[in-house]
Write a structure and sequence with these properties.
The chain is an all-alpha fold and about 450 residues long. It has a two-stranded antiparallel ribbon. β1 and β2 form a beta hairpin. α1 runs antiparallel to α2. The chain is globular. The chain starts with a helix and ends in a 5-residue tail after the last helix.
Length: about 450
């Protein structure tokens, strides 16, 4: 669309300025937080372009089927676009559906990474292909994989007969991996913005000596890979356009959540008075719940041919509840979890985050304790962090969290029992089993 060209130019300038030694806020000695805001704005602008173009093309075509243009097909080698799902039969025998889903899921990861590298070798320099594959393998497969595996589990619950077919199983795994790619994209960017040190038990990608701020471009590559995978392996399905739209919508919502999080917790500025549970719930809804729970659920529903809007509305309502539960657990573990268990060093206190713990502390603190919170929260020196943690203990926030966890679990189970058809209830029960009383 003509009006998108201006957006595209702005996004290009934002991205260029991050890398350009003469104009980058990072290189001019200004705060890394400024670079983080620039990065977040650039990513959000790029996503908005993709989403706007997707809506424009869908409306213009008069159907829900996105058609590939000749100009798009000419960008990469023709070999990529000649691939059909029938040609994937050669890789299907390596799947053994009698084995655990996680084992098959990892097999699919190796297949799709190898195929992307094979295609890239037709047009890219060897060192580029090597970099991208190494970056994928470093950042994508090392988490718990719950988001991706949730797609497979949900499809099995909703349409067990379909999932006995290896092609359908493979497609569900690919969509699941696309969510893991999206997660990797968010985490690499988030680690830069939060100045994090470790992720999943290893140095953050931008902290790897040879990487640095090249990680900004790698974020874009990670996101771009999602749509290459969907086009390559899911385009033959009737739900392809809906799945693509869903990924764009959820990605945009999540970046808005990240933006709200950063605006609420500005580096070096006191925003303590603004922190409250209402604002916290809004951040959680957009930053975590959509992509962690609603995206796996809704994409599985699309793969299984679920059409009724009411089922998606119910799924969204419950996924928002589970997402808030999950994020509150994350906030608790950031402060109280062991780094070797949770795979990272928690920095929410130092980063001045609007977390569940600080919102609870504010609501329970005396006037004197509020002074201690205001004076020390958001400070990176170890003494201030220790004072905040000591005050959390005084306020018995560990007990408050334990009570919340039991209550939230019961409330969600009650909504599932009341509003979800019996045949779909195991899906949400599967989510709750994964996260209830978790330690990482």
């Amino acid at each position: 669309p003509p009006h998108c060209s201006g957006w595209l130019l702005k996004a290009q300038l934002v991205a260029t300025n991050v890398f350009d030694d003469r104009t980058s806020p990072y290189h001019s000695g200004m705060s890394l937080m400024r670079t983080s805001v620039v990065l977040s704005t650039g990513i959000a602008t790029g996503i908005a372009i993709c989403y706007a173009i997707g809506v424009y093309r869908t409306c213009r075509s008069g159907s829900r089927r996105i058609k590939r243009s000749q100009s798009a097909a000419s960008i990469m080698p023709e070999a990529e676009f000649k691939h059909t799902f029938a040609q994937a039969d050669s890789v299907l025998p390596v799947l053994d559906l009698s084995k655990p889903d996680k084992e098959n899921f990892m097999v699919v990861f190796d297949i799709i990474v190898k195929e992307m590298s094979d295609v890239d070798r037709l047009s890219l320099e060897p060192n580029m292909v090597e970099w991208v594959e190494q970056m994928f393998r470093y950042n994508v497969p090392h988490g718990k994989l719950n988001r991706g595996l949730a797609v497979v589990a949900a499809c099995k619950i909703m349409n067990p007969q379909m999932m006995k077919n290896k092609r359908s199983y493979f497609a569900a795994c690919v969509v699941g991996w696309c969510i893991e790619w999206l997660q990797a994209f968010f985490l690499v960017a988030d680690d830069i913005m939060d100045h994090s040190i470790t992720r999943r038990g290893q140095p953050c990608w931008y902290k790897v000596p040879k990487v640095g701020l090249m990680a900004v471009n790698d974020c874009c590559i990670l996101e771009g890979a999602i749509y290459r995978l969907l086009r390559r392996y899911v385009q033959h399905l009737p739900c392809y356009a809906d799945v693509v739209d869903l990924f764009h919508e959820v990605t945009y919502a999540t970046t808005m959540g990240q933006l709200l999080d950063m605006l609420t917790s500005p580096e070096g500025k006191d925003n303590f008075e603004a922190y409250n549970l209402t604002l916290y719930s809004q951040i959680v809804k957009f930053k975590t719940a959509f992509y962690t729970f609603y995206l796996p659920t809704a994409s599985a529903m699309q793969l299984c041919g679920v059409m009724e809007p009411k089922h998606y509305e119910t799924a969204k309502k419950i996924c928002m509840m589970i997402g808030e539960f999950f994020q509150i657990q994350d906030d608790f573990l950031d402060c109280y979890g062991e780094p070797e268990v949770i795979g990272k060093i928690g920095t929410d206190i130092e980063d001045n985050k609007c977390s569940w713990l600080i919102c609870q502390a504010k609501s329970k603190a005396s006037k004197a304790q509020l002074v201690t919170l205001r004076t020390n929260y958001g400070k990176s020196n170890p003494k201030s962090v220790a004072k905040i943690k000591a005050l959390f203990r005084e306020l018995k926030l560990e007990d408050a969290y334990a009570a919340y966890e039991v209550d939230a679990h019961a409330r969600i189970c009650g909504v599932v029992d009341k509003e979800v058809p019996v045949n779909l209830q195991p899906l949400y029960q599967w989510y709750l089993e994964k996260i209830f009383k978790r330690s990482k």
